[in-house]
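Just wondering, does anyone understand what follows?

——
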Amino acid sequence: MEPTKDSEKQEPIKDGEKQEPIKDGDIVIIQSNARDNISIVLNAIIIGLALAGVSQMVHNVDTDGALMSSGLDNLKYYTVLSNIFCMIMAIVFIVLNLMNKKCPILPKLMAAAAVGLTFVIIAFFLAPMYPDLDMYDGANEFFHRWVPIVAVIEFIMFEQDKKMPFRYTFIAAGTSVAYGFFYLVNILINGIGTWPDTNDWYGFLNWGYPVGIVIFLVVVLMNWIIALLLWLIKQKVK
């Protein structure tokens, strides 16, 4: 009897369903059991990095840093909220794994795309535009760099039991849509204000509402593109 080819195998997953068959052209980066163990380690690293960032954030009293406020006031930033969301999903992953259950892939995609957006905006736009400002100072070293990097790697390692629907990419971009909505509503209710107590802490409205809305739409588009890239990678990496 000839040995079964890898492309014909369907390994059972923890919840009793079967994994999507591996097809020609798919990339198998690691076997299932080892991948689970590595994913647990990566999620634990995400939790540790995020907690380190939150600890520095809470104890921070320097409001002169780039995209930095004092203490819990930092919770107004998309970066901080997305990193906390990513940490929560890492905790959920580990808890479900210990319960021998599968973590849903959609919220993991949302978390990876959200922190990925933060990484891209800082690394490729804000840091080059403002070289005199340290975008990686204090807690931002964790929030702007290390959590996003580990989260994207962990998502690529994440084992899915079936093909991820394309519509998930649009849902994943919903984090920036929701944040933008509350950002705008807060300004409409409380006004823009003046620095350092402005409600437009990202400066989106420095050039007026029309430009601010365009900036917001570009951010949402970038969020979706990052989710799309992660979705495309998951179509090949099994």
In short: The chain is about 60% helix and 0% strand. The CA atoms of residues 6 and 89 lie 31 Å apart. The first helix runs from residue 32 to 58. The helical segments are 32-58, 78-98, 105-129, 140-157, 168-172, 174-190, 209-236.
